[in-house]
Amino acid sequence: MVHNFNSGPSVLPQQVLQQASEAIINFNNIGLSILEIGHRTNWFIDVMEEARNSVKELMQLTDEYEVLFLHGGATTQFMQIPMNLLDTHETAAYCDNGIWGNKAIKEAQLFGNVNVIASSKDKNHTYINQNITVPESSKYLHITTNNTVEGTQWHSFPQTNVPIVADMSSDIFSRQLNFNQFSLIYAGAQKNMGAAGVNLLVIKKSLLGTIKRPISPIMDYQKHIDANSLLNTPPVFAVYVAMLTLRWIKQEGGLTVMEKRAEEKANLLYSTIDSLPLFECYVEKESRSKMNAVFFIKDEALQNEFLNECKANNMVGVKGYRTVGGIRVSMYNALAMESVKAFCDLAKDFNNRKG
């Protein structure tokens, strides 16, 4: 068995992989591959509509919201959001809690003013600033709900009248939330929601139509809404895999079950690491991510040795991000508890032998 701890593209449910592989040969027994069907045929329109409706159902969204599946992944949204929401004379509030929030800040500065109201840079992004003041004049507040690189996560959200824009790429559909507290949610699919190549966007319709800047039609959210995510050829296969993954989440019991599993896996992993003298997690306990655990071996000389043992035990994707180093264990929805237990057993054995 291969234990897939990759941070993204990441582990997918076996059921989804099986169904997707069959659809590549013969989609729904129509004699054509999912890779061959037209995106404006009823075959694919049904796929798109099931995907969009599943998002609405899982998030329990009101009729104020629209759901889009777009090209470009979450990174494209770093510029598309301010392009659609922020005029040159306006100011948006941003939180800098790591590499992805920082990238979003730089992109937004090309379109308007950015007020960085919170930063965890002073402690190498090992915590989340929970107590923040959002200026009422802000056009919106942007946060990254989970930081894959640094291993931090927002566990509660600011109470503000300012629209909240949330990058949920790495923890979407992993827990129950009042999703209606956000005005815009975006997420790359390749962690909890499917295959790389498509980006989910959930947007409150009242947020649009306020800027004066002309927007290229392909970048205009309203144009995509009007076209039901079919303004141009969408990433058909990625949308299909997302639909299958959302279907799987519902079949498994929805976000209640996903959250329970996430807590069980994270609790086991962190309690194990905290109990082993060789290992250390620098992330403040109140800010630790349930999706991406980032930690280190205190003796750096042993770190590569441990990573090699992980590889020998069929554990992939455990090397930390290149700018951070260390070890990272990603525990997305489709990762089995069995894999977390296997990693913890290896860590305990390594500690006993080397400690």
CATH class (first level) name of the largest domain: Alpha Beta
What's the helical proportion of residues? 25-40%
Q: State the major sheet.
A: 7 strands, mixed
Which percent range describes the beta-strand content?
15-25%
Class inferred from helices and paired strands? alpha/beta
Low-confidence stretches: none
Q: Give the total of beta strands.
A: 14
Q: What spatial form do the alpha-carbon principal axes imply? A: globular
> CATH architecture of the largest domain, please?
3-Layer(aba) Sandwich
Describe the protein in words.
With 355 residues, this protein is α/β, with parallel strands linked by helices. It folds into two domains: 14-252, Aspartate Aminotransferase, domain 2 (3-Layer(aba) Sandwich), CATH 3.40.640; 254-354, Aspartate Aminotransferase, domain 1, CATH 3.90.1150. The chain has nine helices and 14 strands. The chain has helices at residues 14-25, 42-59, 73-85, 99-108, 221-226, 236-252, 255-275, 300-312, 337-354, and strands at 3-4, 65-70, 91-96, 113-119, 141-144, 146-147, 152-153, 164-167, 184-188, 199-204, 279-280, 292-297, 315-316, 327-330.
Which SSEs are present, and which pair or pack?
Layout: E1 3-4, H1 14-25, H2 42-59, E2 65-70, H3 73-85, E3 91-96, H4 99-108, E4 113-119, E5 141-144, E6 146-147, E7 152-153, E8 164-167, E9 184-188, E10 199-204, H5 221-226, H6 236-252, H7 255-275, E11 279-280, E12 292-297, H8 300-312, E13 315-316, E14 327-330, H9 337-354
Parallel strand pairs: 1-13, 3-4, 3-5, 5-8, 8-9
Antiparallel strand pairs: 2-10, 6-7, 9-10, 11-12, 12-14
Helix pairs in contact: 1-6, 2-6, 3-4, 7-9, 8-9
